Amino acid sequence: MGIEIQPDDQERAFADLRGLVDEGNKNPIQPMSAEAAADWKRQLDERAARPAAGSVKGVEATDEDNYINGLKSNPEHCKEVFKENAEAFVQAEITAGATLQELARTHAGHSRAKGPEADRFELSRRALYGIYGNAGGVKISEATFDNAITNIQQTGGETLNERIRGNVMLNQLSYRDANIPEQEKANALRFVRDSDSGRKYADALIEMTKTHNVREFENVAQKMVEECRSVLGKLGIRPTPYTDSKTWGMWDIGKQYYFLLHPDENDPKYRIADPIADSGKHAEIVHRHVGWEVYAAWRRGEKDFLERTPEKTRNQIVGYLEREPKHRGTLSSDELAELGSLLNV
């Protein structure tokens, strides 16, 4: 059918989590040591409890005007407070799942954090705009915010980078949103952290937040889930619990970005493209998972769905279904995508 796929033997191993059971590991691997996590929490708690700039403690809604006016009365003090609030806010955003690249690009335009850090940051930014006007406020706030990111990155070092990578692995690549046993989720997280592909794809997703939001990735992955379920529903096939998770889409999105960022590692005969911007690449990812589910159903002995497949491609579909599995009980990556494209009812 002309679909071009980048082979990845580990991809199918990741998709079939049932082959990854390990009773010895009862808890997901943590992205930080206990000591580092405790120190991180202590810093955030101290900042949350500290009165901001000698003004109101907690910044309740009824005190917003007093807080802002107090900062506006002393421009230099306002800039110092904004600097402190920006650093606390960046830490809270990272804890909530943001990446440094995303924060640097949006300048807190898409806040994830909810709490005193976010409130104080926004109120002090409003005070800054009130003093210097929109143009001057934007210039100062963006420079301060970028410096806050740089300072936190320098002080956090590899521990911070590992924490951010750990957030992506946990939240986007380990079936955390799937209706599966907790042990399988722990196995998935361990697999992602231990595999070269997992680390590469997580880092690629982080790097690409320079141009896309993590939420944008998640929205596209959710659309892929809906498209896959639609095809399976028309065929009368009940999907496995993994299909309702955004993980399989996020994994493939990360894979495509990795080769987009590292074309020297890509086989020239395979097309690489941005899966967010390229509709063909988007369709390829959905076809591959549809093919995986349908082949799995066939191997379980389900046959009735064949009568609901397109008549003009039915013989080709049967040809794929009757092939022997290549790895972990399924077909190769390109065969699954080809099969899925034939099932587009």
Features:
2 domains
Lay out the secondary structure:
Elements: H1 9-15, H2 34-49, H3 64-72, H4 75-95, H5 100-106, H6 116-172, H7 182-194, H8 196-208, H9 214-235, H10 247-261, H11 279-299, H12 314-321, H13 333-342
Helix pairs in contact: 3-6, 4-6, 6-8, 7-8, 8-10, 9-10, 9-11, 10-11, 11-13, 12-13
Termini gap? 16 Å
Instruction: Work out the number of β strands.
Output: 0
Order of helices and strands: HHHHHHHHHHHHH
Q: Profile the largest sheet.
A: none
Task: Report the mean per-residue pLDDT as an integer.
Answer: 83
Number of domains: 2
What helical percentage do the residues reach? Answer: 55-70%
Poorly predicted ranges (pLDDT <50, ≥5 residues)? Answer: 1-7, 9-32, 50-62
Q: What overall geometry do the principal axes of the alpha carbons give?
A: elongated
Radius of gyration: 24 Å
Strand fraction: under 5%
The SS-based structural class is: mainly alpha
Describe it for me?
The structure is a single chain. By secondary structure, the protein is mainly α. The protein has two domains: 9-24 and 174-342, no CATH class; 34-160, no CATH class. It has 13 helices and no strands. The longest helix has 57 residues, at 116-172. Mean pLDDT is 83; it is low at 1-7, 9-32 and 50-62.
Summarize the structure.
Helix content is 63%, strand content 0%.
